[in-house]
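User: Here's a protein and a ligand (flavin-adenine dinucleotide). What would the complex look like?
Assistant: Let me lay out the input and then the predicted complex.
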Amino acid sequence: MTRLVDLEPVDVLEAQVTVGAGVTLEKLQAHARAAGLDFGVDLAARSAATVGGLVATNAGGIRVLRYGSMRHQVTGLSAVLADGTVVSRLTGLAKDNTGYDLTQLLAGSEGTLGIVTRVRLRLVPQLPGRAVALIGLAGTEDALAVLARARRLPSLAAAEVCYAEGVALVRSYASLGAPFAQSFPVYLLLECAAGTDPTDELLELLGECDELGDATVASDVAGRTRLWAYREAHTEAISAAGVPVKLDVSVPLGALPGLVAELPPTVEKVAPGARTILFGHLNEGNLHVNVLDTGTAGTEVTDAVLNLVAAHRGSISSEHGVGRAKARWLELSRSPAEIATMRRIKAALDPNGLLNPGVLLAAGE
Ligand SMILES: Cc1cc2nc3c(=O)[nH]c(=O)nc-3n(C[C@H](O)[C@H](O)[C@H](O)COP(=O)(O)OP(=O)(O)OC[C@H]3O[C@@H](n4cnc5c(N)ncnc54)[C@H](O)[C@@H]3O)c2cc1C
């Protein structure tokens, strides 16, 4: 009998592993690392997030820049459909053009098409050499200019952005010192990872960037962890400050500076006095928009922000999924024809609407 928390031995030749859907991301990472490999997705919820949940939400996180989101790691899976049918494709073949890709259909389906029970995952090389730079900048345009140059580094592994308000909140929550002698409107965190120490190429890159207000680089574990804390402690620091309206959006990179500038006044109009905290994954134009002190205007804030994002040709859910909370705004990101097609797929696989009713596709329409 196999269990949902089983970890099969790592297949080093294929650089793949098959695990139960209940295995946490942290356990999967430790299992891969013990075999000299690594897993391509990482995010702050690693100790609680399960492989099944990560697949169902097509989770992203801090390494999408290098390895893609969760669906790009999945080479096969087993799932139970609403009528009890078990569909299973766990061979992990690198090439397999034999019809509809049911694995990818289930990835990102938010539990609406089947229950994922087992997953075959691609693994990546372990990269022990790491260097992190925290950079202070005058604006989002400057962060994008540095990113465009940083993308030339084969070792670039992460590019995260955060802003002065969020960093101030993190500093008081986590009792962290100031990263620089002066405060900056924007902070860009770059991480490089390679088989050997990438510090020199990161320093060389920083030397070429006229936009830098200030920068600090760390390659030892303690120093890297300290720099990451300014970015990674955002979620906890925000939750400690109140119950935020949490939105997770993305726009084309060219539209990002405009969105960042327009978000606070857009929120202010519907929720005067609310605090808008932004941070996210710069390379994917993905901003986590957290709004504190909205009072009773939570729905108005969500509506205003998601409409602004749609006006910038963006996505109302970049990596957290649509769930029930955002189902009514799906038409801002997907066309009527796309939504009708999704409903036909749902009706074919789950005609009685047993699986996660109301999630992704709003009920009763
Ligand atoms: C601190 C924090 C940081 C985070 N950072 C990121 C981030 O950077 N990037 C990102 O993308 N996400 C992030 N998340 C969200 C995270 O990806 C999801 O919370 C997590 O991956 C979901 O896994 P879970 O096991 O908790 O699933 P749950 O929250 O339990 O479920 C999520 C959805 O998946 C469905 N589901 C769960 N298991 C299965 C299954 N076996 N089969 C079918 N459907 C299933 C559920 O029905 C539900 O609709 C973060 C969350 C937290 C708390």
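Summary: The mean pLDDT is 96.
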